[in-house]
Give the backbone structure.
Amino acid sequence: MANPVSKLGFRTLRFVEELGGMAAFAADVTRTVVAPPPRLASFSRELFKLGVLSLIIICVCGLTVGMVLGLQGHHTLVRYGATQSLGAVVGLSLIRELGPVITALLVAGRAGSATAAEIASMVTTQQLDGLRMLSIDPVSFVIKPKAMAMQIVTPLLTAMFICCGLYGGYLIGVGVLGGDAGSYMGSLKSAVDFRNDIACCLVKSVVFGFFLGLIATYRGYTSVATAEGVSAATTSSVVISSVTVLLADYVITALWGI
Amino acid sequence: MQQPALGDLAEKPAGDVVVLDRVHMVYRDRPVFTSLSCGFVRGRISVILGGSGSGKTTILRLIGGLVRPESGAVLVDGQDISRLSALELKLMRRKLGMTFQGGSLLDSYSVFDNVALPLREQPGYGERQIADEVHAILKAVDVADADNLLPGELSGGMLRRVALARAIIRKPAVLLCDEPFSGLDPISIRRMATLLMDINRQFGITMIVVSHDIHSTMRMADHVLLLLGGRMVEGTPAELRQSGDAEAAEFFQDGLDRQPGRVR
C-alpha cells in the first residue's frame, strides 16, 4: 500500500516542481522581454516562421470547419424553420469557441512542436552552452523572440481562422444550399456582441498564445540532451499545450459569465 | 595574424590562473571527483587526459561555470566562479573562451555571422569593424573562404577551426578546448595542434585542452593532468611518460601504440 502512495507523492512533487520551474522560466522570459536588446530581427524571423508559414493550414482548416458548421447548422435549423439564423449559429460557434480553441490546437501542433524541437536540438548540440560561454543569455537570444512571436501570431491566426470559417459557412449556407445572403449576414451582425464574443475571443487567444509560447519553449529548453530528449520535448509540448488550452478555455468561459 | 589586445588575465604575472580546490562533483548519484585539487598555469597549454567518463569535460564545464560543484571552489583569476551571480558570471565569461566537441555553432547562422556574434553582442562595435575582425580571424584559422557557408556544410576540421575563431575573437585570457581533435584525420589533428600552439605563443592565451590524442598532447602540452579512475597524476608529458607510476606510463604507451596514423 505504501508503494502506490509513495508513487503518488513522488508524482505530485514532480508536478509541483515542474510548475515552479515553469513559473520561474516565465519570469525569466518576461525579464528579457522588457530588457534590451529588443532582438527585432530574430523576432520578425520567428513571426514569419510561426505565423506566415502557418497561414495555409489555418485558412484551410477554418474554411473546412465553417463549411461543416454551415452544413450541420442548416440541416438542424431547417427543422425549425429558422435557416435565416445560420449566420448567427456559424458566427457564435466560431467566435466564442471553435476559432480560438482549434487555432490554438493547430498552432500547438505545427508551430509549438517545431519550436520545442528546434530548442531541444540546440540543447543536444550544445548551442545554448556555446551562447552562455560567449556571455550571451540564451533566454534572451533564443527564447524571447520565439515566445513573443507565438504570443503575437496566435490572436492573428485566430482572426484568420474565424474569417475563413465565416466564409466557409456562407459558401455552404448561401452558395450551395440556397439560403439568403442578407439573412446570413444580418443574423451574424445582430447576434455577435463585442463584449461577450469578440473581447472574450481576443482574451482567449492572447492567453492561449502565452501558454503555447511558454510551454513549447520551456519543454525545449529543459529537454534532456539526447535524440530521445528532442522527441520527448516535442511530444510533451504538444500534449501539455493541448490540455492546457482546453482547461484554460473552460476557465475563461466560466469566468467571462457567458 | 592580427595582434588583438588580450584580456586582463593574460597580462598578469605567471602563476595559476585557474585553480580547482578540493572539488567534489557528482553526476547522477555517482561521484566524478572527490576532493580534486589542481592548478593551470597562466600562459601555458595544459592538457587533460583520461579514460571515458573520468570527468575531463566536467573540469572544463566547472571552469566555464556551466555546472557547479557539490563542494569545493573553482577559482578563475582568484574569484570562485561557482559562487558568482548570473551577472557576475556573464562578466567573468568575457575572460573565457570555450570550444565544444561538436563545435556548438548556431546551425542557422553562416560562418561569418557565427564568428561575428560575440562582437555584435558587445556594445561599441560597428559593422565595418566587425567585418574586418571576422575576416582577419577566419584568415588566421585558415577558413577565410568559408564565411558564407552554414556550419552543416563544413568538414569536421573546418568546423573546429571556425569554433576556435569564434572562441578567440573576443580575445579571452583562458581558452577551454573540449576534444578539439576528436573525429579528425591525422593531418587535420596536426594542423589543429599547430594552430593552438600558434595562438598560445602569439597571444599568450592560457589553454586548457581535453584530449584523447597522446601524440598531439606530447607535442603541444606544457603540463598534463591525467585522470585515472578517481585519482590524478600531473606533470610534463615527458615526466608522466617516464614516471614511476605504472598506470600513467601504461596509459601513455597504450595511447602511442594505438595511433598508427601519426604524421611527422
Q: What stands out?
A: Residues 87 and 186 of chain A are 8 Å apart (CA to CA).
